[in-house]
Amino acid sequence: MVGTLGARRVAFLARHGEDHLLAPHRINYRANIFALHRLGTKRMIGVNAVGGIRADMAPRVLAVPDQIIDYTHGRFDSFCDVEGTKVEHIDFSEPYHAGLRAQLLAAAQRAGVAVIDGGCYGATQGPRLETRAEIERMRRDGCDLVGMTGMPEAVLACEIGVEYACIALVANWAAGCGDAAEITMDEVFANLDQATAGLPKLIGALLERIAVA
Protein backbone atom coordinates (compact mmCIF):
# COMPACT_ATOMS: atom_id res chain seq x y z
CA MET A 1 0.00 0.00 0.00
CA VAL A 2 1.37 3.41 -0.99
CA GLY A 3 -0.05 6.70 0.24
CA THR A 4 0.84 9.92 2.01
CA LEU A 5 1.29 10.66 5.68
CA GLY A 6 1.55 14.38 6.23
CA ALA A 7 3.41 15.59 3.16
CA ARG A 8 5.43 12.40 2.72
CA ARG A 9 4.93 9.46 0.40
CA VAL A 10 4.93 6.30 2.49
CA ALA A 11 4.74 2.61 1.56
CA PHE A 12 3.30 0.02 3.94
CA LEU A 13 3.59 -3.74 3.59
CA ALA A 14 1.85 -6.24 5.89
CA ARG A 15 4.50 -8.95 6.06
CA HIS A 16 2.04 -11.63 7.22
CA GLY A 17 -0.53 -10.62 4.59
CA GLU A 18 -3.62 -8.51 5.16
CA ASP A 19 -5.42 -11.44 6.82
CA HIS A 20 -2.37 -12.65 8.77
CA LEU A 21 -2.21 -15.92 6.83
CA LEU A 22 1.56 -16.22 6.36
CA ALA A 23 3.52 -17.88 9.18
CA PRO A 24 6.83 -16.18 10.01
CA HIS A 25 8.94 -18.91 8.37
CA ARG A 26 6.81 -18.78 5.18
CA ILE A 27 7.11 -15.03 4.56
CA ASN A 28 9.07 -14.14 1.42
CA TYR A 29 11.22 -11.53 3.13
CA ARG A 30 13.48 -11.21 0.10
CA ALA A 31 10.58 -10.36 -2.22
CA ASN A 32 9.15 -7.90 0.31
CA ILE A 33 12.40 -5.99 0.76
CA PHE A 34 13.05 -5.94 -2.98
CA ALA A 35 9.52 -4.70 -3.75
CA LEU A 36 9.93 -1.81 -1.31
CA HIS A 37 13.35 -1.06 -2.77
CA ARG A 38 11.91 -0.97 -6.30
CA LEU A 39 9.42 1.66 -5.13
CA GLY A 40 12.37 3.87 -4.26
CA THR A 41 12.33 3.32 -0.52
CA LYS A 42 15.42 4.75 1.18
CA ARG A 43 14.51 3.88 4.77
CA MET A 44 12.49 1.05 6.29
CA ILE A 45 10.99 0.77 9.76
CA GLY A 46 10.19 -2.79 10.80
CA VAL A 47 7.34 -2.90 13.32
CA ASN A 48 7.67 -6.16 15.23
CA ALA A 49 5.51 -7.71 17.94
CA VAL A 50 7.85 -9.34 20.47
CA GLY A 51 8.03 -11.04 23.82
CA GLY A 52 9.87 -9.37 26.69
CA ILE A 53 12.80 -11.11 28.37
CA ARG A 54 14.66 -8.33 30.20
CA ALA A 55 12.97 -7.02 33.32
CA ASP A 56 12.21 -3.57 31.84
CA MET A 57 10.89 -5.01 28.55
CA ALA A 58 7.40 -5.50 29.98
CA PRO A 59 4.18 -5.90 27.97
CA ARG A 60 3.05 -2.67 26.22
CA VAL A 61 6.60 -1.27 26.16
CA LEU A 62 8.11 0.06 22.91
CA ALA A 63 11.80 -0.51 22.23
CA VAL A 64 14.26 0.42 19.49
CA PRO A 65 16.76 -2.46 19.60
CA ASP A 66 20.36 -2.15 18.46
CA GLN A 67 21.43 -5.79 18.12
CA ILE A 68 20.12 -9.13 16.81
CA ILE A 69 20.86 -12.79 17.38
CA ASP A 70 19.45 -15.00 14.62
CA TYR A 71 18.07 -18.41 15.64
CA THR A 72 16.06 -18.94 12.44
CA HIS A 73 16.83 -21.55 9.80
CA GLY A 74 15.88 -22.42 6.23
CA ARG A 75 14.79 -18.90 5.24
CA PHE A 76 15.95 -17.16 2.06
CA ASP A 77 18.22 -14.74 3.85
CA SER A 78 20.42 -13.22 1.15
CA PHE A 79 20.13 -11.66 -2.29
CA CYS A 80 23.43 -13.43 -3.04
CA ASP A 81 21.46 -16.69 -3.38
CA VAL A 82 19.97 -15.47 -6.67
CA GLU A 83 21.67 -17.18 -9.59
CA GLY A 84 24.26 -15.01 -11.30
CA THR A 85 24.55 -12.59 -8.39
CA LYS A 86 28.00 -11.77 -7.04
CA VAL A 87 28.51 -12.85 -3.43
CA GLU A 88 28.81 -9.84 -1.10
CA HIS A 89 30.21 -10.25 2.42
CA ILE A 90 28.55 -7.26 4.08
CA ASP A 91 29.53 -5.87 7.47
CA PHE A 92 26.60 -6.67 9.77
CA SER A 93 28.27 -5.65 13.04
CA GLU A 94 25.53 -3.06 13.58
CA PRO A 95 22.35 -4.66 12.19
CA TYR A 96 20.24 -1.51 12.59
CA HIS A 97 21.20 1.77 10.93
CA ALA A 98 22.59 4.05 13.64
CA GLY A 99 21.35 7.27 12.04
CA LEU A 100 17.81 6.00 11.54
CA ARG A 101 17.73 4.65 15.11
CA ALA A 102 18.77 8.07 16.41
CA GLN A 103 16.06 9.76 14.35
CA LEU A 104 13.45 7.32 15.69
CA LEU A 105 14.48 7.98 19.29
CA ALA A 106 14.44 11.75 18.75
CA ALA A 107 11.01 11.53 17.13
CA ALA A 108 9.67 9.52 20.07
CA GLN A 109 10.91 12.20 22.46
CA ARG A 110 9.29 14.98 20.44
CA ALA A 111 6.02 13.03 20.24
CA GLY A 112 6.02 12.21 23.95
CA VAL A 113 6.07 8.47 23.29
CA ALA A 114 8.11 6.45 25.77
CA VAL A 115 10.59 4.05 24.16
CA ILE A 116 13.57 2.06 25.41
CA ASP A 117 16.82 2.79 23.62
CA GLY A 118 18.68 -0.40 22.72
CA GLY A 119 18.36 -4.07 23.44
CA CYS A 120 19.09 -7.34 21.67
CA TYR A 121 16.35 -8.93 19.55
CA GLY A 122 16.46 -12.73 19.38
CA ALA A 123 14.82 -13.95 16.15
CA THR A 124 13.25 -17.41 16.42
CA GLN A 125 11.67 -19.64 13.79
CA GLY A 126 8.04 -19.73 14.91
CA PRO A 127 5.17 -19.97 14.51
CA ARG A 128 5.09 -21.62 17.93
CA LEU A 129 6.15 -19.67 20.97
CA GLU A 130 9.31 -20.67 22.78
CA THR A 131 9.84 -23.03 25.72
CA ARG A 132 11.03 -21.73 29.08
CA ALA A 133 14.37 -23.48 28.51
CA GLU A 134 14.79 -21.78 25.13
CA ILE A 135 14.10 -18.37 26.63
CA GLU A 136 16.53 -19.06 29.46
CA ARG A 137 19.18 -19.94 26.87
CA MET A 138 18.38 -16.73 24.98
CA ARG A 139 18.72 -14.74 28.19
CA ARG A 140 22.17 -16.25 28.74
CA ASP A 141 23.03 -15.37 25.14
CA GLY A 142 22.18 -11.74 25.85
CA CYS A 143 18.72 -11.43 24.27
CA ASP A 144 16.33 -8.87 25.74
CA LEU A 145 13.44 -9.45 23.32
CA VAL A 146 12.21 -12.39 21.29
CA GLY A 147 10.35 -12.28 17.98
CA MET A 148 9.92 -14.22 14.76
CA THR A 149 10.19 -11.69 11.91
CA GLY A 150 13.28 -9.58 12.66
CA MET A 151 15.48 -11.78 10.48
CA PRO A 152 16.27 -11.99 7.64
CA GLU A 153 14.48 -8.66 7.12
CA ALA A 154 17.30 -6.61 8.66
CA VAL A 155 20.14 -8.24 6.74
CA LEU A 156 18.30 -8.10 3.40
CA ALA A 157 17.76 -4.36 3.81
CA CYS A 158 21.44 -3.96 4.63
CA GLU A 159 22.49 -5.98 1.57
CA ILE A 160 20.39 -3.85 -0.74
CA GLY A 161 21.62 -0.57 0.76
CA VAL A 162 18.45 0.55 2.54
CA GLU A 163 18.53 2.10 6.01
CA TYR A 164 16.63 -0.18 8.40
CA ALA A 165 15.55 0.12 12.03
CA CYS A 166 13.03 -1.67 14.23
CA ILE A 167 10.27 -0.59 16.57
CA ALA A 168 9.58 -3.55 18.84
CA LEU A 169 6.16 -3.69 20.48
CA VAL A 170 6.20 -5.93 23.55
CA ALA A 171 3.04 -8.03 23.37
CA ASN A 172 3.72 -10.42 26.26
CA TRP A 173 6.32 -11.71 28.66
CA ALA A 174 8.38 -14.47 27.08
CA ALA A 175 8.01 -17.96 28.57
CA GLY A 176 9.18 -18.06 32.18
CA CYS A 177 9.53 -14.26 32.40
CA GLY A 178 7.31 -11.88 34.36
CA ASP A 179 4.50 -13.20 36.51
CA ALA A 180 2.18 -14.75 33.90
CA ALA A 181 1.53 -18.48 34.27
CA GLU A 182 0.78 -18.80 30.54
CA ILE A 183 0.61 -16.68 27.41
CA THR A 184 -2.88 -16.12 25.97
CA MET A 185 -3.79 -14.55 22.64
CA ASP A 186 -6.34 -12.31 24.34
CA GLU A 187 -3.53 -10.89 26.47
CA VAL A 188 -1.27 -10.48 23.43
CA PHE A 189 -3.87 -8.58 21.39
CA ALA A 190 -4.85 -6.34 24.30
CA ASN A 191 -1.21 -5.42 24.91
CA LEU A 192 -0.61 -4.76 21.22
CA ASP A 193 -3.61 -2.41 21.08
CA GLN A 194 -2.06 -0.37 23.87
CA ALA A 195 1.47 -0.52 22.50
CA THR A 196 0.46 0.63 19.02
CA ALA A 197 -1.52 3.63 20.29
CA GLY A 198 1.53 5.90 20.18
CA LEU A 199 2.86 4.72 16.83
CA PRO A 200 1.03 7.24 14.60
CA LYS A 201 2.42 10.15 16.63
CA LEU A 202 5.91 8.68 16.62
CA ILE A 203 5.96 8.01 12.86
CA GLY A 204 4.43 11.41 12.19
CA ALA A 205 7.15 13.11 14.24
CA LEU A 206 9.79 11.12 12.37
CA LEU A 207 8.47 12.14 8.95
CA GLU A 208 8.35 15.82 9.94
CA ARG A 209 12.12 15.96 10.43
CA ILE A 210 13.64 13.17 8.36
CA ALA A 211 15.65 14.26 5.33
CA VAL A 212 14.12 13.67 1.91
CA ALA A 213 17.31 12.38 0.28
How would you explain this protein's 3D organization?
The chain is of the alpha/beta class and 213 residues long. The protein has a single domain, classed as Nucleoside phosphorylase domain (Rossmann fold, 3-Layer(aba) Sandwich), CATH 3.40.50. It has six helices and nine strands, in the order E-E-H-E-E-E-H-E-E-H-E-H-E-H-H. Strands 5-7-8-3-9-4-6 form a seven-stranded mixed β-sheet. Strands 1-2 form a two-stranded antiparallel sheet. Helix 2 (98-111) crosses helix 6. The two termini are 21 Å apart. 34% of the residues are buried.
Describe this structure in a few short sentences.
By secondary structure, the chain is of the alpha/beta class.
How does the overall form come out from the CA principal axes? globular
Q: Regarding CATH, which class?
A: Alpha Beta
CATH 2nd-level architecture:
3-Layer(aba) Sandwich
On the 0-100 scale, what is the average pLDDT? Answer: 92
* Strand order of the biggest β-sheet: 5-7-8-3-9-4-6
Q: What characterizes the major β-sheet?
A: 7 strands, mixed
Query: Strand-residue fraction?
Result: 15-25%
Q: How far from one another are the termini?
A: 21 Å
Number of domains: 1
Number of strands: 9
The structure class reads alpha/beta
As a percent range, the share of helical residues equals 25-40%
CATH superfamily: Nucleoside phosphorylase domain
Q: What is the CATH topology classification name?
A: Rossmann fold
**Run of helices and strands:** EEHEEEHEEHEHEHH
Count up the helices. Answer: 6
Low-confidence sequence ranges: none
